[in-house]
Write a structure and sequence with these properties.
With 782 residues, the chain is mainly β. Helix content is 5%, strand content 55%. The strands form six sheets. The protein has a 26-stranded antiparallel β-barrel. Strand 38 and strand 39 form a beta hairpin. It is globular and about 85 Å long. It starts with 23 loop residues before the first strand and ends with a strand.
Length: 782
Amino acid sequence: MKRIFILTVTTVALALPGFAQEDFKQGEMTFGVLQKDFDTNSSKFLEYRDIPQGPVASYLNFVGKKGDLTYRVWGYDVTQKDQRLSARIGNGTVRFDASYLGIPHNFGNGGKSILSPTTDADWRLSGALQSYHQNAIAATPGAGVTYAYLSSLVAPSLAAAPANIDLKLLRGRTTLGFTLRPKDSNLDIGVSYFHERRSGTRAANGTSFGFGNVVETPEPVRYVTQDFAVNASFKGKWGVARAAIRFNDFRNAFDKFTWDNPFRSTDGTDASAYQSPGSASKNGAVFGVMALMPDNKAVTESVGTTLKFGTKTRLTADLAFGQWKQNEDPFIPWTTNTAIRTPGGVLATTAALPAAKLDGKINTTSLSAFFTTKLTDELGLHARYRRYDHNNKTPRYELREGYVRFDAVWEDIPRITVPYGYTNDILDAYATYGKGVFGVEAGWKHNKMKRTFRESEDTTENVFRVAADVRGDWVTFRGIGEFGSRDYSGYDAVRAEEESFLPEPGVVSLPANQTVLRRPDQAKRDLTRVGGTVEVSPGSGKVTASASYFHTKFKYDQGVVPCEDVDAFPGQSRFCPGGVQAPLGLIDDKYDTFTAEVNFTPVERATVYAFYSYENGDILQDGRQSGATLNFNPADVWTSNITNKGNTFGAGADFTLVPEKWFLKLTARYQDIDGNNAVTLLPGYSTAIYGTNPLLTQCVGGSGPCTIPEFDDTTLTSAWGSLRYQFAKQWSAGAGVGYEDYQLKDAQTGNTLNYMPASFFLQADNRDYQSWVGYLSLNYKW
């Protein structure tokens, strides 16, 4: 949206007719002043843009030619964080390109925390306050350690904390490129370099001491990604051959992040410490440590060719090999809690780890090919094939004695790491026929996914499609239809879960996840996708209009599936007559879109346009709540129907008020997204599992669904206008004003509490705003 507030300028094209053109120099510059006003501290207004207050240089462009050398330097918003700068210089043999792109990310403003930073990667609480909280909780009977009690305990410190935590980062992308094309040669050589730096903070979702004590913190981000590539191609009458090698390096300035536990000043542990503080436990660690994104490297080698067979047949094939490695950052210790010991009696903070570093290795192989031929002038055959193999060769590490849970308690459960991998094969074959104004297409697409350490051995999806085209003098139409289904082989609902556990002699491991659940990326499903687009331009062409509609639906198979391991849970078999039950998971997922646009040019000096789009997403899924052990009771099934409906209206107009002097532009847009989540529980639900939550209680007993109407509901209204005056051959001045209004209503994120049951939240503001922006600009061309 920001660019609507800056005067649009005409870009001088660099397309030159060749070396015969005389030397020249041209340029254009636009300077101005921006003023903004908005009514809240919300980061949403500047989420992905920068609108400074004061002078700006919104556009510059220099282009020229001297001898056989051409050059161009141009930039947008060159004084702002979201600036775009580019340069190019070269001749018919050598060319050099450079560019820079700034991308701001403003996640939230004015957050507050009970912790404060000692360094970017270390957030702490005073020892005195930790001791006060621990002693107060220790003196309170377990049943009294409730949310209301804890909220009042931390309220004074939270009230005194400054609301000055802004979650934001800036991505700076630099790209350099060098191309060599020797004269009278068919050889091209290219060298490229990419550098991206991300600097700032984002909300950390892994800083937790258990279910009863989540502490949201600002995670520091200092990423540097570098990519260096060399490529070459050779062109002949037979086609093109190419090869390349690419080196990628990722570095994180921070290996780990440390944060304090607001409720503990001394380490403690017990079997339920991961639920602390509460009636179950008051123990836990004094502080926690989280490993951050590790350094890693990748190398990719590729070769390819495009071969010509006569004038009607082409074959393109590319093969690439990749080697990914991650073995530079050491593992963090088992825990920070000095009260925890391993089953062998060793202090867990210093106990030996199964390895010092990951030694992560992944090899990738990518093969893609495209074949096309024309059997006749009307009939063509085409085929695409792609294989991508993600072979994870990272060693599996055994945690024989178990692991530490949330820095709170040692869990004597042997585990083993799981290096997931997959192979994906896609074959797409289709035929086209066109004669006159009509054209048709028919094809088949085969998609096979083979996974390691997952529930299914592989999944296979076959999709058939048809399409038709009509191209007339004033109308163009294209309609499509796709119909397919996906199936799996060897589905084992507990396989993926069991892959991360080591077998123990004499111990029968029980599944923790629903064994009748079918994962959405592997479940059987049917696909239907139909739609079409039409464009019309009748008569004189003063009016053009277009419209499109598409419907996509995935319907997931609801046939009965085995109740795996149901006999391991006493009394549960009665819910699975015949050993089968209806599956849990997605039932259907559908999406409808409609768009329409019309442009009208009544006279040469005026153009008006309008557009409308409608989107409707509808997801239906079910699940079943369980307590400490797996529950197969169909009466405890819940159903969630999530819908999102969007309506967007817009209109605009461009007027030449006085030829070659005064120009006016107007635009307005309104978007409304209405989300809804209707949750239904069956009569006879278990209060032992659900409790007496009034939100759930009203959903049962035949009273209908429990609706959450404020489910990510948003509205965005914007309008702007600009006026430009050409007061001299080389000079023009402009002025404009823009307005935006953003409203968010969401039951989950709409609160403003920094402490809620069991969680400290930063509550950085990214909600409603209302803003005005105005500008004055001066443009000069030479």
